[in-house]
Amino acid sequence: MSRKIICLFDVDGTITKPRQPISPSIEKFLLETVRKEFDIAVVGGSDLNKIQEQLGTENLFEKYKYIFAENGLIAFKDGKALPSQSIQDMMGEDVLQDFINFVLRYISELNLPFKRGTFVEFRTGMMNISPTGRNCSKKEREQFYEYDSEHHVREKFIQALKKEFPDLALTYSIGGQISFDVFPIGWDKTYCLRHIQGYDEIHFFGDKTAEGGNDHEIYESDLTIGHRVTCPKDTVNQLNVLIALVKENREKELSVPLQCV
Ligand SMILES: [Mg+2]
């Protein structure tokens, strides 16, 4: 019996360029070549809307066995929504408000090259916090990133939060250019693995697998076989290797002569 395999992909930097739509050639490869051999699934940190912007809305749920937005807090199997939890259920309103109030106060006292809007984006399983505000332009985004590399605004912010709320079981993760994510410990991408059942092997492909990166925990998880990729093209290369390997193993199995009793 050949082993049942699912390939699970991070989105940004793994099957798409960061924040860009998937290229037609990559999509064709996943749907026509990879899907012939394995089931395929995606897990992104962003919300479903952003994943749909990148992977398209047309027949999206037919293309991927599982779609996980917000690390799997929002989950679909064969297009059907799976049960979900929220950060407010987990933290409770009082604690959550203390936390958000501190964040807004802290931001109000920061002097930065510029500030725009949307400092706290509240999602199902996480908060995304941006000292400069999420609705800045692409150019401003890059400017802030440069400023932050020099002044470590996000790192200092996280240190201040850890100091103020030492007892909250929260994880902080710097990703992208202008913000960081806050979520309950364990609600990283490994969260989505609880939904995946019935496979002998889960192959995970991600680009931010180093410590502190948002693919680190799932890449290291005992439940997955991790593949570190540098860009969508590298993902294709590594998938070709995996497909060849699986085919080779299958042929070996077939060539074992049946034993007569
Ligand atoms: Mg990524």
UniProtKB/TrEMBL annotation:
<keyword id="KW-0460">Magnesium</keyword>
<feature type="binding site">
    <location>
        <position position="12"/>
    </location>
    <ligand>
        <name>Mg(2+)</name>
    </ligand>
</feature>
<dbReference type="GO" id="GO:0006013">
    <property type="term" value="P:mannose metabolic process"/>
</dbReference>
<dbReference type="InterPro" id="IPR043169">
    <property type="entry name" value="PMM_cap"/>
</dbReference>
<feature type="binding site">
    <location>
        <position position="141"/>
    </location>
    <ligand>
        <name>alpha-D-mannose 1-phosphate</name>
    </ligand>
</feature>
<feature type="binding site">
    <location>
        <position position="207"/>
    </location>
    <ligand>
        <name>Mg(2+)</name>
    </ligand>
</feature>
<feature type="active site" description="Proton donor/acceptor">
    <location>
        <position position="12"/>
    </location>
</feature>
<keyword id="KW-0963">Cytoplasm</keyword>
<feature type="binding site">
    <location>
        <position position="224"/>
    </location>
    <ligand>
        <name>Mg(2+)</name>
    </ligand>
</feature>
<feature type="binding site">
    <location>
        <position position="123"/>
    </location>
    <ligand>
        <name>alpha-D-mannose 1-phosphate</name>
    </ligand>
</feature>
<feature type="binding site">
    <location>
        <position position="181"/>
    </location>
    <ligand>
        <name>alpha-D-mannose 1-phosphate</name>
    </ligand>
</feature>
<feature type="binding site">
    <location>
        <position position="179"/>
    </location>
    <ligand>
        <name>alpha-D-mannose 1-phosphate</name>
    </ligand>
</feature>
<feature type="binding site">
    <location>
        <position position="19"/>
    </location>
    <ligand>
        <name>alpha-D-mannose 1-phosphate</name>
    </ligand>
</feature>
<feature type="binding site">
    <location>
        <position position="134"/>
    </location>
    <ligand>
        <name>alpha-D-mannose 1-phosphate</name>
    </ligand>
</feature>
<dbReference type="GO" id="GO:0046872">
    <property type="term" value="F:metal ion binding"/>
</dbReference>
<protein>
    <recommendedName>
        <fullName>Phosphomannomutase</fullName>
        <ecNumber>5.4.2.8</ecNumber>
    </recommendedName>
</protein>
<dbReference type="InterPro" id="IPR036412">
    <property type="entry name" value="HAD-like_sf"/>
</dbReference>
<dbReference type="Pfam" id="PF03332">
    <property type="entry name" value="PMM"/>
</dbReference>
<feature type="binding site">
    <location>
        <position position="10"/>
    </location>
    <ligand>
        <name>Mg(2+)</name>
    </ligand>
</feature>
<dbReference type="GO" id="GO:0006487">
    <property type="term" value="P:protein N-linked glycosylation"/>
</dbReference>
<dbReference type="GO" id="GO:0005829">
    <property type="term" value="C:cytosol"/>
</dbReference>
<dbReference type="InterPro" id="IPR006379">
    <property type="entry name" value="HAD-SF_hydro_IIB"/>
</dbReference>
<keyword id="KW-0413">Isomerase</keyword>
<dbReference type="GO" id="GO:0004615">
    <property type="term" value="F:phosphomannomutase activity"/>
</dbReference>
<dbReference type="InterPro" id="IPR005002">
    <property type="entry name" value="PMM"/>
</dbReference>
<comment type="similarity">
    <text>Belongs to the eukaryotic PMM family.</text>
</comment>
<dbReference type="GO" id="GO:0009298">
    <property type="term" value="P:GDP-mannose biosynthetic process"/>
</dbReference>
<dbReference type="InterPro" id="IPR023214">
    <property type="entry name" value="HAD_sf"/>
</dbReference>
<comment type="subunit">
    <text>Homodimer.</text>
</comment>
<feature type="binding site">
    <location>
        <position position="219"/>
    </location>
    <ligand>
        <name>Mg(2+)</name>
    </ligand>
</feature>
<keyword id="KW-0479">Metal-binding</keyword>
<feature type="active site" description="Nucleophile">
    <location>
        <position position="10"/>
    </location>
</feature>
<comment type="function">
    <text>Involved in the synthesis of the GDP-mannose and dolichol-phosphate-mannose required for a number of critical mannosyl transfer reactions.</text>
</comment>
<comment type="pathway">
    <text>Nucleotide-sugar biosynthesis; GDP-alpha-D-mannose biosynthesis; alpha-D-mannose 1-phosphate from D-fructose 6-phosphate: step 2/2.</text>
</comment>
